[in-house]
Structure formats: C-alpha cells, structure tokens
Amino acid sequence: MLERLFIFLMVIFTIGLSTGVSSARQVELKSNYNTSVQNISLNREETNWLAHKKTLVVGTWLPEVSPIVYQNSGEYYRGVNADYLALMQKNLNLKIIIKQYDNEQEALAALANNDVDTLITQLSRRQDVGGNLLRTSVLLTTWPTLVTSLKNTMLPLTTNHQVSVACVRDCPFLDVIQGAFPEAKVSFYDDEYQAMASVVNGDNQYYIGNNITSSHCISRYFSQSLVITHYFDKQEQYNYFVVNEDQPVLRNILDGFITSISNEIHMQVMQNWLNRGNLAYLNAPIPFTTQEKAWLKKKHVIRILINPDYPPYTLVDRSGELRGILGDLLNIIHLQTGLDFEPILANSKSEQTKQISGEQWDMYPTITLTHQNPHNSTFSDPLMNVAFVMITSHEETADSLLERPIRIALPAGHVLESELKQRYPQATWVNADTSSVAMVMVKEGSADAAIATELSARFMVDHYYQKNMHFFRLPDMPGASVSFAISSHEPMLKSVMDKALQAIPPREILQMTEKWSKISNTQVDLWSRYSKQFYQLGIFALLLIAISLIWGISLFREVKKRKLSQRLLEEQLHLKEALSQELENEKNKAIEATKAKSRFLASMSHELRTPVSSIVGFVELLSSSELSPAQRKEAIALTGATAQSLLGLIGKILDLDKIESGKYQVVPQWTDLSQLIELQCHSFDALARQKGITLACVSQLPANERVFVDQQALRQILTNLVGNALKFTEQGSIHVTARLTPDGENHGTLTIAISDTGCGISEEEQAGLFHRYAQGRCGRQQTGSGLGLFICKELVTLMGGTLELMSVPLQGTTFTITLPVETARQSIVPDGDAPGTLLPLPCLSILIADDNPTNRLLLKRQLNAIGYNVDEACDGEEAEAKLAKKSYDLLITDVNMPKKDGFDLAASLRRQQPNLQIWGLTASALPQSRDRCLQNGMNLCLFKPVSIQTLTHELSKIETGYSSPCSIRHLKFNVLTENTGGDRALMNEILETFREATLNDIQAAEKAVLQDEPQLFLRALHRLHGSAQILGITALQNLCEPFESRRPDDLPLAVRQEALQKIIAVMREIEIEIDSLISH
C-alpha cells in the first residue's frame, strides 16, 4: 500500500515539474517552392546586420491550420508559411531554423528570452502585439468565405429566415454569421473537413471559414460537390512577424522582404496549395492615384442597372441579391475597392431603355464590338470576350440554314443587328425582348432560329432545352466583349473599375464562368414564378412534420443518416480526389478536350453505322413484295438479330475507356460458332446485294463442336471487319472462313479469316492502322472515325489472341483472327436463366405502371401477345390506388416516374403486400440499377428494351397467381384486342356470341352423328372451323381443319364420333376460359 502511494506521489511530482518546462521542437523547413531572388532595398546598417547574422531562428506555435502550416508533417515544417520562409532564406541569404511551441505563451516567453529571433503569428484580427514588441507589415490576408453545395448555389447570401450554418470550433466569424443570417442555427465541428462534409450530406446549408483553408479543403476533397459563393469584407484575418523592441533593424529587414513580394509571387505561392479561391492578388494594394483614393472615400454605393434574366452572366436570388458571373465579379471588386453595388433590375429591354434615359444609374453591363470605340471613355476595359451563335430546333449547318429564307428572332437593340441584316437579307427578322424570349419563340415555332451569345446559349440548352435545341457559331462575325458602360456623371468610376479589372487574373474570371455553368436547372428558376407553389409545399411539409415526427425519432434518423453519409464519403474520398484532379487537368486543356469529344462522337457514328446499314437493307427488302414467306421470315429474324447486336454494340463502344484501362471483362460462354458466324454474315446480305458483291461464309468447323468464347466481343469484331470489307470493296467478293485446329483433348486454335477483293492498303498505312483514329484512305476521303480496328485489336488481345493484316494494293486485304479456345463435342445445356427455356405460363393478374404512354402501350401489347390482359397506371400514385382496390399477382413498374417513382412504390408496397411480385423496368444497364431495385423490395430488374421472349421466360418462373382463377391456353389476347380495339365490353360480347354459336354447332354435329347424316356433320364442323379462325383458337382449328377436304361418302361413323368427343373436350376448356375472362 505504501509503495503504491509513493509511486502515485512521484508521478504527480513529475507532471508538476513538466508543466513548467517549455517544450520547443526544432523542425526542418521543407518547401518545394523555388523562384528567382527578389530585389530587396536595404540600407547599410541592415546589410551589415545580415552579414553578421548567418542564422535566423523563427518561432511558431500550435495549433496550426492547413495549408498555412501542415500539422501532420512530422519533423518537417510545410505549408504556405514554409514557402514564404524558404523565399526569405534565399533572398536574404540566411539559414532559417524553425522552433515550434505548444502554445502562444511559450512562444512569447521564448522570444522574450531571446531563444528565437522572431515569431510568425497565426491568422487573427489582432493588431496590438504589446508595448515591448514590434510587428511587421501583414504577410497574408484572408477573408470570411461562404461555401454552399454545388446543388444549392442560388441559396441567398443573406436572409432573416432560419438556416443552418457549419463552422469549426472557436470560429472567429460568428459576427459575420449573425450579420448575414440572424436566425441561423450554427453547428460546430472539430475540423474544416467535417464541417464541409456536413454541407455535402445536406445536414447544413452553409459553411463559413477563411478563404485559404476553405479553398484548400474544397480543392482536395469537395471540388465536385461544394462551391464558394461569396466573400465577406468584414473580420479579415492577418499574420505577420513580431520581434523584440530592441530589434528594429530586424523588423525593418522583414518589412522590406514583405513589401518586395509582388502579386505574381503571392499568386505562385498560393497556387501550390489552391486551385480555386486564390485571392492572393488582393494582398498587394491597387496603385490608385490620390484623386481616386479621395473619390473612393466619398463614394460608397454604385447603382448598377441589371437584366436579371440573362444567365449565366446575371441572376437574381430570392433575396434580390445579384448573382451569376457578374455577381461574383462585383464581390471581388468590392473587396478591392470598398465600393458597394446596388442592383437596379430592368426585366425587359424597354424598361432598361427607360432606366438609361432617366440617368438614375452609374453603370450597366453591355456587349460591344471589339473594333468599335476601343478607347471610348464611357466604357470600361473588357471583362471577357464573347462569341455569337445561332440557335435552332433542328441540328443543321450554317450554310444549309442561312441559304434559306427563315425567321430569325433577334433581341432588341442587338449589337450585331445592322451587320446581320446586311449579311443575310433573305432572312425575316423577328423582334424579341431578350435572348431567353428569343429561344422560347424558337421552341414554340414562331421563329426558326435565334441569336444569342455562345455562353448564354450553352447554359440555356444544357438546363432547359437539352433535346430540343442546337446551336452553331455564326461564321466570320466581328469580335465582341462584355464591358461596363459608365455614366458620364461618374468620370472617376471608369479609371477605378479599369484598375480593379486589370488586377483580377484571367484564371479567376474563367473559374467564375465554369462555376455558374455547373449549377442545376432547378436553381435558376425565378422565385417569383413559383413562389406560391413553394409556399404551399413548405406549409404542407411543416404540418406533416409537426404531426408525424417527434424529437426522439428525428434525432435517431439524423444520427443514422450522418453516420451513413460519412462512411460513404470516406469510401469515395480517394476516388473523388483523383477524379477532381483529372477534371482540373482537362479544364486547362479545353481545346484538346473539344477535339477529343468530336473524335469520340465520330467514332460512335462509325461503329453504329455498320449494323444500322444492315437493318436498313433488310427493311428495304421487307418493303418489297418479291420476297416469299420463308424469305420474309428469314429477313425479319436477321433484322431482329442485328438490332440486338446493335444494342450490345452500343454498350461496348461506351466501354472503350474500360478497355484502355484494363477494366474490361471478357465473358466467355459455350457457343455454336458456325451459327454465330453465319448469322453475322447474313446480316450483311442486303448491303452486299445492293453493291453487287458476293458475300460467302465458309465454315470448316467440326459438326456439333462448341467453343468457349465471348459471343458479343466476337460479334463486334466480325461486324467491324466485314463492314470495313464491304465499305472498301467496289466489286468482286468477300469470303469469311473459319477453322478449328485441335490442340489437345479440350483445347484448340480458332482461326477466322475475312478476305476481300477491294482496293487494298499500302504498307505505309498498314504500320499505323491499328492505332486510335487511324483510317485507310483507298483513294477517297476518310469515312468513319478510325476507331473500329483499334477496338477489334484490343478485344482480340483481351481474349488472348492476335489480329493480323495482309494486304496488297489494288488486289485485296485479308484480316486473320487467331484465338486459343476451349472446345467440347457434347451438347451444351443452356443456362436455366437464359430466355428460351419456356415453362407453362401461369394465370396472373397483372398491373403495369409507366408514365411514358408509348412504353406502356408496347408492354401492354407484348403481354397481350403472350396471352395476358393487363391493367394500366400512368404513375406511382395511380398504381398504388389501383392496388388498394384490386388484388394483383404482378406489378411491372418503370423506376423513373413523376409523383412517386418505382423505387418508392416498391418499398411501400413490399411492407403492405409481401406476396406481390414486383418487377422494375429501367433504361440504365448499370449494376447499381439492379442492386437498387432489389434493395427497394423488387423481385426482378429488367433492362429496356425487353423482348417478348424475355417476358415469357420470366413469367414462366412465377408460381400460379392467387388473384387469377385459371390458366388461359386457347384464347389469344392479341387477336381479341385487334378485333375489338381494346374495348372490353365489345370483347365480352364477342366471346358470348362465339360461345352461343359454337354450342349450336356442336349440338348440330351431335344430331348429325345420331341420325348418321355426314353432310350435316361436315357443315357444322365447317362453321366451327370458321369461328375458331376468327379468334385464332389453334386447338379447335386443328380438330376441324382435316374435315374441310373430306367427302360425306368417305367419313366413317367412328371417325365422326371420335372427332366430336375431342371437340367437346376442347370446348369445355374454352368455356371455362371465357367465364374467367368475362368475370375478371
């Protein structure tokens, strides 16, 4: 006991001693920043001081914030401060030693004891450093920064409504939050990452921090989800050096170093740590003249005339704040000059003209031609260049469109009005108030085209008219730019604005443009248009929450949601960071990206054109009346097979990146290779006949031999190679041969050769033919993208084979595919899940839900053809209402619907009706789509387009439904639907009439048998046969048809009795089906 007490006292004593000892750590200065030596002006005393002082000890203290100083750098001192100290070390020819202390008190004590020569402070608003210390000029300045989700860029910058704001603990900007958001609910987090992640998760609407740490965190982790929306000019923070009062020479040297740092160097230092939000150019003041400085002190509010409906240049949020590119630009100019800008809204051109004539304004943005008045004193320097485009509802070229007499909507007072009217006199010019109105006129058909700036057109098309509008640049138009028109009553404003604009780097304006190009279309809808609906929705939501939720449940869901979101965020963090870096790199190469996009679209066109041409050829053949029924059936089958191949081909083309990155997966399966190759060759028969070319398919494969290959990949390879052979062969023939060389018991080498008598390929072209975008010319213009052979080569390589080329100019070309394959002689049993293994169809009551009428009608007709009658619903709410009134065995629902989508519908129904079969339909073939369907309670996920074969196969696997009374085998819904137009009452009447007529005919047949009257028996069966033909009842037709050609004298009584018994048995089954259909 005494020993334990002694040890305890020793520990307490040791801890007590340790608290009074300064724990300084020497860390190594680490910086990758390198620049030329700056010219620092020093006097003789300062030069002599440096000559005797070879080492400068700089103190700092914890905690630090990234990227000012990285705390997790271990023994190294890294970050923005480290880059500036490295620059100082090189410029002053000093060795700098860093000592790091646990807190500010220890650091100040070390300075007082001369353990360090100077301290570099942390970011703060403190100006007073104490009577015995001297401070230098400011090294860094930061501004409070407002951050929101990229999905909510148009949230108001100030509001009296309740909002949620995130910040770090000990946040220095609480006064800023109180001023902008008086009713804000503030949540505190341990670090910037957690605070910003809460905005990404939707737990908070805003984050506030300084611009350097905020921009750094966004650049590293949230570049695709968060955006800076505003900088506040209050509570700026600074850092600087402090020295003892007996060291004025050192203070002057440090001051000289700080003032020698140019804006360019400030920007370079920050660019090592930030890729956006870099306000380092504001650290050095703008060189205003004495008159300009005096004017700035007197002038505080600039009235700016704004058209609020000109995105993305100008937007106005629900609080009346100016947003968009110009809103961000004026925010920066406010930080530079202290000027406040008051927007004056002019919603139309006439209203703007009236405001301008009234002279109740100081400036307004406008577009001017570059060659007009470049030094006009009433216009500021250009903000950005603009190009003009023509917008149409159809994709056309400029030459084909402008040669015709068309109606063009032109905004009133457009800068190109005289130029356009002079150049295109054949056009009819329609006046429009704004560019937005002009685009509406094109959509509604009152104009054929509209004129707008390229940036506005791209924004409006991306957000409102993705499928309805196209645009192209107007050829040979004069250059133009956006400038500010300055009122003649404010001559000093022009020089101030020019200097402020010149100080803003072009990169900053480019980032503003990119930011406002990314916002979602739901954010740019004017509040005034939809405020009533939003208020109604808000009141309803508040009432629902007040009635249905209590605090405990709300808290539980919130915690659960945060944990789930944080886990998902951590899992995807690395991927987002890599993607963000890649996107940033692509952004700096805009011209190359545009070219790559064009090449990609061209490659898709090439790959799709070949199978499409086959389908077109078959359609032309089908439209001809010269085909026999067998030939027509074969053409239809080949057209369907080619269309299915085309569907798979689209997926493969979109997987090109997977092929190049090694993520493509080969999926081999047992294949009847002879049938596959023959079918692919036949798909080109129509095209070959059109060109007069012989297309021969020669299979030297053993009978009943199966090979283990990727069918879709092999189809795509054959489609490309045979299609190329047809394209470059004008006369002669094309031969496709296949042979299998055994290599052991169950292995072999598959060789497929495609030979043509075309123009051939020169040796020079052969060397690069398998590269991306390489194309053979063959004495003609290039056609296609040059991507087909590249894809073929990659696919063959992935399957472990080789693709070789042999060609002689003017004689022909042979491509040879060699693949190692597994072989099997036995019959391969198809996969049980593959469509084709048909079981007896169960009787089911089916409901389909789809908001697209065409898709709904197609699915209904497919199910009718199989033998099912279905009910329909146009959205999730209607489907739920029908399910509440009537029992169904199967619900087939589209996953994307208004009001209530398929996922929500399935989730709610699964709890209410656990036995209900629910199938989801989606056009997205991603694995995540299937997983999401199953997670929401669906039994099956089908990918569009869905074939009748797939539907039949899946329906056959469902157990007999509990809502349908019987199985329908004889009656065919498609025939009934065609005969009645879908009218259920008429369908019931036809069924009743059929039953009554057939019963009379059977009674007549029975009477004829009893009276031994063969002639009357044949008449009764003839009437039965006709009725069965009308309704397509195959079983009854097959029983009656043999008697159509029989003679009465050659009809034994036993034959008549046997046939009558079979007919009566079939009619009993049909009567049960009729009763079921009428009552169902």
UniProtKB/TrEMBL annotation:
InterPro entries: BvgS-like_periplasmic1, BvgS-like_periplasmic2, CheY-like_superfamily, HATPase_C_sf, HATPase_dom, His_kinase_dom, HisK_dim/P_dom, HisK_dim/P_sf. Residues 845-959 form the Response regulatory domain. It is a multi-pass membrane protein. GO terms for molecular function: ATP binding; histidine phosphotransfer kinase activity; phosphorelay sensor kinase activity. It catalyses: ATP + protein L-histidine = ADP + protein N-phospho-L-histidine. The modification 4-aspartylphosphate is found at D894. GO terms for cellular component: plasma membrane. Its EC number is 2.7.13.3. Keywords: ATP-binding, Cell inner membrane, Cell membrane, Coiled coil, Kinase, Membrane, Nucleotide-binding, Phosphoprotein, Signal, Transferase, Transmembrane, Transmembrane helix, Two-component regulatory system. PROSITE patterns: HIS_KIN, HPT, RESPONSE_REGULATORY. It holds the Pfam family Response_reg. Residues 983-1077 form the HPt domain. It comes from the Bacteria. The chain crosses the membrane at residues 534-556. Residues 566-596 form a coiled coil. The modification Phosphohistidine is found at H1022. It is found in: Cell inner membrane. Its main location: membrane. Residues 603-823 form the Histidine kinase domain. PANTHER family: OSMOSENSING HISTIDINE PROTEIN KINASE SLN1 (PTHR43047:SF72), TWO-COMPONENT HISTIDINE PROTEIN KINASE (PTHR43047). This is histidine kinase. It comes from Citrobacter freundii.
